[in-house]
Specification:
The structure holds three protein chains of three kinds. Chain B is mainly alpha-helical. Chain B contains 15 helices and no strands. Chain B has helices spanning 19-42, 47-51, 61-71, 74-105, 111-120, 130-139, 146-150, 157-168, 173-180, 185-193, 198-213, 217-222, 231-237, 247-267, 269-280. Chain B is globular. Chain C has a two-stranded antiparallel sheet. Classes of the chains: A alpha+beta, B mainly alpha, C mainly alpha.
Chain lengths: 474, 282, 459
């Protein structure tokens, strides 16, 4: 009887608390909805303007970085309050933003990834207005906003070229990376391989030696089954993923998932897997699983996003092995064209009043100022996003200290500026990527013919794209 | 077993030695417990210790706890889940009691149609309409709110039936006596019916608490803001800690997430069983 | 086409009444006819008659006919139950609505409605509305946040099915025919003869043929069709696996545990607690155990038994087994709980009598214990099946995410993959409708069977 009463009492207390909380929530909602665009101007001068910044990171390093920068910005600009909210994935941020726009309480800034650039450009609210505003347009040629120097013109060329659509930046680049090969030199040296392999053939040869060792690791190489690696490979081989110059001279209306470059790449991949050199973790997009196996010494090499190069180099030092970063291995049978970027940018929502918008713009430029961009790079391994940040790092002598960190920037600098190495802008790219990774998984795990399966995937992807274009296209 | 049928002395109809059963049951209990015990072990370890298959407690319990509880604010997620579970459970119980009262002690036109409409919802699990529900609730502007986690689950056909059956089996004199006292239906419910229904309420409480606490799909769709997330969906982001898969913190979080429903279930086992016996009884 | 269908419905209505009703009368024939026409017309007209448009395929026509028939049938059932009530006959819906007590409150008509209103409002807004919207969505090509949508009528359904309308009709008819034939044989044969045993086996095979018929009806993919057959197969394998594993295990353990020995309560607690564990956590725990590099299972197999275990996520069978194991581990506590309660109801007298007769332990189990447990078994069958349909989502999401190559992607997982991750709301909704039909099927089967066979009487 006693505990029943206790449970009941606890329940009532919680309900009361929740109702109290609920009531508070309602009042703020009402204030927000009523205020809308005019909140800023009507607000008493003591009340800072809220700038909601939705970030698709949840780990303490990356999310923590964003929170710390927001705190610094708020301290320097007391009239603003940048509030960082964490989400589990890019898609989560985006879906939440679309719903929030329709319910009238959108955030100011959202963090969204490169492959969905087309999708973000196409996004509209329930009355058909574009959700996002071009950052270039909003800056309008200013070199300084609220005392924060504009850094958008200073963005490194690889990112600038990728994100420039119709001649302007729609979003502000933030975390930008490329693919790198991370070699466990202790294992490679033991197998008699003195330098990291540069081509597909060299990878196969190195793996042959690694796997021939009696006390070697259980696998030789791995990378996540993520469409990004296949896209990188197409860029390296100079092949397009979609028509209309990868969707850059017009909307892409056709994709080529079974091009020669793609078939060659997947065939090489499957060959590695069949020989037992490539370890498949068994899950698509399994970044964590590949990392764990590599760090556990189960692999001699992994191809990874450069976004973790610094982190992994430190971890390798802790674990006591030498980790060396190098360019992503390429197809030796065709001339090298170039690798592309990956990562995400910050998009600004349309419909804010000037004061709030300026705050958001100032924050974005502060966020990637040379000092912050350099710190971000040093924390993670993402490429320093502006030329000034690169200069700052050089001046500090950082690259002598951490040569691995420079590999991604060098690889991007080595790329020719062609539509193939710029990467594609495709509608429903996320869905199309999913079709490709599923097909690759099928090929790796089951004994199916590469060209046939990719042909099937291509058919599916084109159907999906044409449906997307029917809903979003012109 | 004694708790199941109080007052009835049952003869055991299985003869023979007892010790083989003790051994069999102990082994079975250990096998069933193994996944959780193993998770508890890993929860104390660093990744290196896990990979080297160390079978003694590791060195990283406090740092794992810090990584999960503080840095990733799993404490916040536990609080959100607790709030959701208590609100849903309480709300559901109250609404079910009211519905049971209406169905048993009132005569009204269209009763059987209403009852049929409630009955049919047993065939309508939320999961099959989850896409439409996501659009609908999102359209209310409820994403990332506690309302989205609570309000859609407040009504329960199961609960309404449970109380309807329970009330229907009570003596009619109760109502007559209460009417003579001039008690209103709500007073009757509060003073007479509820005190006689604690077992059913407890049974419903356990079922609903466990159900709500363990909800995964819906929160992972409608709650995107990590600070508003509930436990089960928050586990998902913990598969990546410091850029890779760290088993220790992950398993620690899994164990922590299981404590509240486990405790509720174990502590309230007896009322749960007897309440359910009433529910099952015709 | 539509008109033809409505005319057929108009005739079917009276036939139905003549067949079912005890007091057929002219006005009732008229009402039934109108109801059937209404039921048949409501969906096709609601959908703008799109299924009978020029460019649609035979399968679309077939689906439209099926929908009209279903609508008419539903309308007739409702009409009939109204007639029955008028005649003072208690039918299903009315019968369970509770005794109308002599001492009931006599207050304003609005009082019960007030008491019921919170429940009814929530059910209407959060169950009925999304249910209807699911049907609407399923006929569209639409994406979250898209500026426009396109009506595709039954397109989202017909692409899940084989393209040959003749076979599409033939398979289910064959299965139904087989089931009825087997049932007839059972009825005609005398118990305890070889004929009856043969009939029993045949009726089990006939039930299984229904599964095969569905398998054959779903598309294997290609030519613009969606390969739904593998999803169906995964769902069947994983659901049946969970139900069989969980229930047989649960019964076995309960049978071991219910004997009155010292510490019985402690044992019971130690056996049933996994009920409180969430499907997601169950997935995580087994994800750890089976991890190919860090998991204890692989390690033990390799180092203690010298067996080289492949990565379970790369093998369809192993991945499915892992999901089944994790899910049945979680549900087994629930099953033990109910079987323990059920075993209390086994009649001691019967057992004593059988002991005197010298029945073996096995006979005792099959002849006395199992039949006594049949209501519980049936109840558990349905709850386990629901669990296997829906709750398994969390387990799959943590263990395999549908790998390898979609071999553990069951119906609910596929709905989320298509509808949420790929943002294809229309197709996701169409698959939801299929799952909805499956749930309705299981529930109706439960109602029918529990009426026929399972008796809670006395227990």
């Amino acid at each position: 009887m006693k505990y029943r009463l206790m449970v009941l009492a606890a329940a009532i207390a919680l309900v009361a608390a929740a109702c109290g909380g609920g009531a508070d929530a309602t009042t703020t909602t009402v204030a927000d909805a009523g205020g809308g665009d005019t909140t800023a101007t009507d607000a008493p001068s003591g009340d800072p303007i809220e700038i909601d910044f939705w970030v698709a990171f949840s780990d303490e390093k990356r999310l923590g970085f964003a929170q710390d920068r927001a705190a610094e910005f708020n301290a320097a600009h007391p009239e603003y309050n940048v509030k960082v909210t964490s989400f589990a994935s890019y898609n989560d941020v985006f879906d939440a933003a679309v719903l929030a726009v329709d319910s009238g309480q959108p955030p100011a800034l959202i963090h969204f990834f490169e492959a969905a650039t087309r999708q973000a450009l196409d996004a509209v609210d329930s009355s058909g207005n574009k959700i996002f505003k071009s950052v270039t347009e909003a800056i309008g040629g200013r070199t300084e906003i609220l005392g924060e120097p504009v850094v958008l013109d200073n963005v490194v060329s690889a990112a600038r070229d990728y994100y420039t659509v119709d001649g302007s930046f729609y979003s502000m680049p933030w975390n930008t990376s490329s693919t790198v090969l991370l070699s466990n030199m202790d294992i490679l040296n033991a197998a008699g391989v003195t330098k990291p392999p540069e081509t597909w053939g060299e990878v196969t040869a190195a793996c042959e030696k690694v796997m021939a060792m009696t006390d070697g690791p259980s696998g030789c190489i791995s990378w996540p089954n993520h469409s990004w690696f296949a896209e990188q490979s197409l860029g390296q081989q100079g092949e397009l993923l979609a028509n209309n110059d990868n969707g850059r001279s017009g909307r892409a209306t056709e994709v080529f998932l079974n091009s020669k470059g793609m078939i060659d790449y997947v065939t090489w991949w499957k060959d590695l897997a069949d020989k037992g050199y490539y370890t498949y973790t068994g899950q698509q997009r399994d970044w964590g699983g590949v990392d764990s196996a590599y760090l556990a010494g189960e692999l001699a090499m992994m191809i990874d996003s450069s976004s973790d190069t610094v982190i992994h180099t430190d971890e390798a030092t802790d674990l006591g092995f030498e980790l060396k970063a190098s360019f992503m291995p390429r197809n030796e049978n065709v001339p090298y064209v170039g690798n592309l970027i990956g990562g995400a940018t910050i998009w600004m929502l349309d419909g804010m009043d000037t004061k709030k918008e300026d705050g958001a713009l100032a924050f974005m430029n502060f966020f990637s100022n040379p000092k912050n961009a350099a710190a971000w790079h040093q924390l993670t391994g993402y490429v320093p996003i502006t030329e000034d940040a690169v200069a700052l790092l050089n001046a500090e002598g950082w690259y002598d200290e951490a040569p691995n960190a420079k590999v991604a920037s060098d690889q991007l600098a080595a790329a020719a500026n062609t539509p193939a190495s710029l990467g594609a802008l495709i509608g429903n790219f996320v869905g199309i990527r999913d079709i490709l990774t599923l097909a690759i998984e099928d090929i790796l795990v089951n004994d199916v013919d590469v060209a046939t399966r990719l042909g099937q995937a291509n058919e599916e992807a084109n159907k999906s794209l044409s449906e997307y274009e029917a809903l979003f296209g012109n | 077993m004694n708790g199941l049928s109080p007052g009835v002395r049952r003869k055991t109809f299985f003869r023979g030695r007892r010790w083989p059963y003790h051994i069999g049951l102990t082994i079975t209990a250990l096998i069933i417990a193994f996944p959780l015990l193993y998770a508890m072990l890993v929860a104390t370890q660093t990744n290196a210790e896990t990979y080297s298959f160390q079978f003694t407690p590791g060195s990283a319990f406090w740092s794992n706890l810090n990584a999960v509880w503080v840095k990733r604010d799993f404490a916040g997620a536990m609080m959100n889940s607790l709030q959701q579970a208590v609100l849903v459970t309480t709300g559901k119980t109250i609404l079910s009691l009211l519905a049971g009262l209406a169905f048993v002690y009132f005569k009204f036109r269209g009763k059987w149609i209403v009852f049929g409409l409630v009955l049919i919802t047993l065939m309508m699990p939320t999961e099959v309409m989850i896409l439409a529900m996501f659009r609908l609730v999102g359209g209310f502007g409820w994403q990332d709110t506690m309302a989205a986690l609570v309000v859609p689950f407040l009504a329960s056909a199961t609960g309404a039936f449970l109380f309807r059956q329970h009330f229907a089996n009570m003596p009619t004199e109760l109502l007559e006596a209460s009417q003579i006292d001039g008690a209103s239906p709500v007073q009757f419910l509060r003073k007479v019916l509820i005190p006689l229904s604690w077992n059913v309420i407890a049974a419903l409480f356990v079922i609903q608490f466990v159900y709500t606490w363990n909800m995964f799909l819906w929160p992972s769709l409608i709650i995107r803001d990590e600070s508003k997330q509930v436990v089960q969906a928050a586990l998902q982001t913990l598969t990546n800690i410091d850029g890779s898969l760290n088993f220790g913190p992950l398993m620690l979080a899994a164990v922590l997430a299981s404590l509240p429903p486990g405790l509720v279930f174990i502590l309230m086992q007896k009322p749960f069983m007897s309440g359910f016996a009433i529910g099952q009884d015709k | 086409m539509l008109i033809l269908g409505l005319i057929v419905a108009a005739f079917l209505g009276p036939i139905f009444v003549w067949w079912k009703s005890e007091k057929p009368s002219l006005p009732r024939y008229g009402i039934a006819s109108a109801a059937a026409v209404f039921g048949a017309a409501v969906t096709p007209i609601g959908m703008g008659q799109c299924a009978f448009a020029e460019e649609t395929s035979g399968v679309d026509h077939l689906l439209a006919w099926a929908l009209m028939a279903g609508g008419a049938w539903l309308a007739l059932i409702v009409t009939q139950s109204v007639f029955d009530r008028r005649d003072g006959k208690r039918t299903g819906g009315g019968g369970v609505a509770g005794e109308i007590r002599t001492g009931g409150y006599r207050m304003g008509w609005w009082v019960p409605w007030l008491l019921l209103s919170p429940t009814l409002i929530i059910l209407a807004v959060f169950l009925y509305t999304p249910a209807i919207q699911t049907f609407t969505l399923s006929s569209k090509l639409t994406r979250l946040g898209a500026p426009r949508s396109k009506d595709v009528c039954f397109g989202n359904f017909s692409e899940l099915l084989i393209t040959d309308p003749v076979r599409l009709v033939a398979y289910p008819l064959l299965a139904i025919g087989f089931i009825y034939a087997a049932r007839l044989w059972v009825k005609r044969s005398t118990p305890d003869t070889w004929s009856r045993r043969g009939a029993d086996v045949t009726s089990v095979v006939a039930m299984l043929s229904a599964f095969v018929a569905f398998y054959a009806m779903f598309s294997a993919g290609g030519a613009g069709q969606v390969a739904y057959r593998p999803v169906y197969l995964n769902t069947v394998i994983i659901s049946v696996g969970i139900v069989v594993f969980g229930m047989v295990g649960g019964l076995g353990i309960a049978y071991l545990a219910f004997r009155q020995i010292k510490g019985g309560g402690v044992y019971r607690t130690l056996l049933i607690w996994p009920y409180a564990i969430s499907p997601a956590v169950a997935g995580l725990l087994f994800f750890m155990i089976f991890d190919p590099t860090a998991g204890i299972f692989t390690y033990t197999m390799e180092n203690w038994f010298g067996i080289d275990v492949p990565n379970y996520r790369e093998s369809a069978i192993l991945a499915q087994m892992a999901i089944i194991l994790a899910s049945s581990w979680k549900i087994i506590g629930y099953n033990i709980l109910f079987y323990l309660a059920g075993l209390q109801t086994v009649s001691v007298d019967q057992v004593e009598a059988s002991l005197i007769d010298g029945a073996s332990a096995r006979q005792r189990f099959t002849k006395i214990v199992l039949p006594a447990l049949s209501p519980i078994t049936f109840f558990l069958l349905v709850t386990n099946l629901t669990y296997a349909f829906f709750e398994v989502y969390g387990t799959i999401d943590f263990m395999t995410k549908g790998a390898p190559a979609g071999k553990t992607s069951v119906a609910i997982y596929e709905i989320i993959r298509v509808g949420v991750n790929n943002g294809d709301l229309g197709r996701g909704a169409a698959q939801s409708v299929l799952l909805f039909l499956a749930v309705i099927g299981v529930t109706l089967w439960q109602f029918r069977t529990s009426g026929e066979r399972v008796s809670y009487g006395g227990s």
